[in-house]
Amino acid sequence: MNALKSAPVLAHEVPAKDPYLEISDLWKLYGDFVALRDVSLKVEEGEFVCFLGPSGCGKTTLLRAIAGLDLQTRGTVIQNGQDVSNLPPSRRDFGIVFQSYALFPNLTIRKNIAYGLENAGRSKEEITVRVTELLDMVGLSEQGNKYPAQLSGGQQQRIALARAIATSPGLLLLDEPLSALDAKVRVHLRHEIKELQRKLGVTTVMVTHDQEEALSMADRIVVMNHGVIEQVGAPTEVYKNPASLFVAGFIGEMNQLEAQILSENRLRIGKHEFECRDHDFDPGTTVVAAIRPDDVVPHGSDFVPDAGAKNCELVRIGDMEFLGSFWRCHLISDDFHGAELIADFSVNAVRRLSLATRQEIHVELPRENLIAFAPEAQGGDDD
Amino acid sequence: MTDAATLPPGRDVKPRLSRDDVMMRSWMIVIALYLVVTLVFPLYAMLSKSFSTYHFDLGQFEFQVSDDDGVFATDPVLASTLNDQLGVFGEADLRAGSDGRLPATKLFPDFSFRSSKMYRVRGTSDEAVYLVGSTRHSGTAWQELDSNTFRRVQMRPVSGTGFGNFVTYFSTPALSNSIKNSLVISTIATVLTVTLAFGFAYALNRSCLRFKGAFRIIAMAPILVPSLLPGIALVYLFGNQGMLKELLMGQSIYGPIGILIGSVFFTFPHAFLILSTALAISDARLYEAADSLKTSPWKTFWTVTIPGARYGIISATFVVFNLVITDFGLPKVIGGQFNVLAVDIYKQVIGQQNFEMGAVVSVVLLIPAVFAFAIDRIVQRRQVAQLSARSVPYEPKPQKGRDRVAMIYCSVIGVFIIGLLAICQYAALIKFWPYDLSLSLNNYQFDLMDGGGWGSYFNSIKLGLLTAIVGTGVVFFGAYLVEKANGFEMGRGFFQMVAMLPMAVPGMVLGLAYIFFFNNPANPLNAIYGTMAILVVCTVTHFYTVSHLTAVTALKQMDREFESVSASLKQPTMKLFRRVTVPVCLPALLDISIYLFVNAMTTVSAVVFLYSPKTALASIAVLNMDDAGDIAPAAAMGMMIFYTNAAARIIHLLVSRGLLTRTQAWRFR
């Protein structure tokens, strides 16, 4: 839990005014199962926040608590200065989009979008104008008189989005909105949603299990696991400075090697000593030394490390997989007790250094990219 | 993990209810209350009736006799003491019904109403009641009567609770034999029907038989007639003046044979429907695998087909068993001296006015019915899981020999079903069987017969329409609330349970329970007794479960998040119900209403206790005319029900199609 406390709550500077959404000490229990454990979070006005985590981590539970669809067991939710902790959904201010679209199948697209605009003192003309405007906004102005089943999945999800923002809610909630779509449509729509959100400036919370989606869309990512928040930060921050081994492994790829701590910036992997990022483990502690595959630096076969060379390791290249823009190499070192090191070398580097399987080369594990983590807990005994 | 313990102290967040939440919960409670009042309370009334006993307590009465001069010289004596000395009343004599009377003079062997002796009588407690003539007396004050008046003194029983009625029931072979009869006949009928229906369903699903559509319609036809109609047809065929009487070789159709044949007829569509579904969902890949392993067709049948359809077979078995054991109309018409439980209830209540004993038989009948129902529910739950598996439907390939056998088999069954219906129609059109075979419409002059006349026919249609409209509304709205309301788990669990209950309650039991509950003058709902309203209420409740399940299935197919979206858009839930839920579920709504209509037209069992002269029904008229010996008019009325239901089905089909194309355009791309 040390890592969590040391993690920065906000990546950028905290503005003076109150956050738009403030979640404090939220717990959610289903019988004996703890779905949310003491979760606290602040979301600024206009921010796009992603809840990211594996299935069952509590991200959807948290979203549904914010919406009031499934009330939390303990804790408060304050939205726009108002305590909404125990209010039903109909008395909160949000629009929501679900993975299943949840479009009303027997109503036309126009009527679906107009659904929330009715009974609110708007005239028929006003509603028509607003619906047309929304249809334009999502780029489907020609489709207004069709039924949902006549549209593609991506188009249906855009209609669901238009319906959710029709009443200009203060908060937009997106529950895995892209998960049911084809890969290509997903990438395209990802961009569109982000654009629309920026244009409207609406505070948005999106739930996803897709790290790429979170990294490309969010202003800030909330990484969750087992009902707790592991880390909150900007995408680059979360990627570069993961707060825990879980975050490191969940976002992007990470080599994980068993190691012993020697001093505040040195550790031993297998038979060799390496310098690593500063940490506060005691000497002698068993940790996991982690490095991303694309941070491993290759040297040519003719490279001979001099006496002062640090963090260099002699390895044999095992399998090499060509993955388009880079080569994924499986490196074996006799000194790592059989542990394999995975490295992504650019096509350029492989050509320049003429790397091939069964070659023996030196690779460097740069000090600032080699991070020591506490091993992941088995069960819940560290909680 | 000891997670819960780490929860900080304090109170859980208590949800504030939205207006919709409050509205939905209130309505759910209203409909649950409806079910409690129309089902739970009557059943409770019936149950308590079966345990209410009456007996004479001789210790409650005291007598004193004078000498011939009217002087009371001897001591007063208790009736019980007198009986101990004389032994006039045995154990059995002291058991009584609610209006039992015991003449006091029996305790005085040398009593003569001409003697000049005087008699005194009194109770030893305030509960003691006796009659002098028809005047009711109670209390401990002495009354002095001359011998001519004393002749008219009768002791009244005291009421109590206990197993007395059950003791009587099980110690009277004439009554308790029915248990064995009912179980045996139901078991044999079940084995017969399920076997025959399986063959039929198998032929339709696994061969390249021609006219499959026609065979399917024929198999479903018996559902459109009251269960007593095949009984009438059998009387014409094999009865005392039957045209094929010789075929029975001296056996009488009135009794188990008639009940068996008739039961096969009226339960066939139910078994066929379940088995057909079970066979239709089987996986073709299993057959391909068996084929490639060179398994013999016989072995494939026993190792692939039967195990695949096992839930269907079990379910059909219990459904048919339940239908036969609870059926009243058929054994009433053709059972003769062969007593079964459902008819016993009727005989006890209508024939002997012994309501307590009727209640006892009802309780006895309730046990196997509830048992069969429970097993069927468990099995059905399993079959749903099997349905959701991904399988490739089996496509039969033509095979001459097999297809010919299938054709012959299905034709025989088809002739049996159509034959029985045709006999009824033929009998209805004949002047006077078997003496004058010329055709006439005389038998349709229902107004000249006992049974309610044409009015009863129109009453039935009225009941059918009212049941369809009211029932569909109540059932669907109730199902919607219980499926889509937020939270309130306990209330919803209770509702689901009560909604399943009606299926386990035989119609006869329900009807009798209604008498006990609604005919009680102390009940404020007493006003609906004897009206069309109670018939509608009773029929809706009787057929609630299947309708409820149909509605729930349709609602489960709706996106779970519609309600969430509607709430986030600040729209009332009822707007969603009206504009989305009802239109999308329209096909299911129509299915529920036709189901209720057809059943309201054919049901006899529950309503037989509840109709009044003004609200006689067609199905009851069939029963009563048959009872009165007007068998031909009974057949005619039965066929009227058939044609009405067939027409209703056709209208239902056309309306469904019309509505689908007009309002369900969204279903088609």
Automatic annotation (TrEMBL), chain A:
InterPro entries: AAA+_ATPase (IPR003593), ABC_SmlMolc_Importer (IPR050093), ABC_transporter-like_ATP-bd (IPR003439), ABC_transporter-like_CS (IPR017871), AminoethylPonate_ABC_PhnT2 (IPR017666), Mo/tungstate-bd_C_term_dom (IPR008995), P-loop_NTPase (IPR027417). Pfam families: ABC_tran (PF00005). PROSITE patterns: ABC_TRANSPORTER_1, ABC_TRANSPORTER_2. GO terms for molecular function: ATP binding; ATP hydrolysis activity. GO terms for biological process: quaternary ammonium group transport. Keywords: ATP-binding, Cell inner membrane, Cell membrane, Membrane, Nucleotide-binding, Translocase, Transport. Residues 21-251 form the ABC transporter domain. Gene3D superfamilies: 2.40.50.100, P-loop containing nucleotide triphosphate hydrolases. NCBIfam families: PhnT2 (TIGR03265). This is Iron(III) transport system ATP-binding protein. It comes from Shimia aestuarii.
Automatic annotation (TrEMBL), chain B:
It is found in: Cell membrane. The chain crosses the membrane at residues 26-47, 183-205, 217-239, 259-281, 301-325, 357-375, 406-428, 463-482, 494-516, 528-552, 584-611, 631-655. GO terms for biological process: transmembrane transport. One of its GO terms (cellular component) is plasma membrane. CDD domains: TM_PBP2. SUPFAM superfamilies: MetI-like. It comes from the Bacteria. Pfam families: BPD_transp_1 (PF00528). Residues 179-376, 457-652 form the ABC transmembrane type-1 domain. InterPro entries: AminoethylPonate_ABC_perm-1, MetI-like, MetI-like_sf. It is a multi-pass membrane protein. Keywords: Membrane, Transmembrane, Transmembrane helix, Transport. Belongs to the binding-protein-dependent transport system permease family. NCBIfam families: PhnU2. This is Iron(III) transport system permease protein. It comes from Shimia aestuarii.
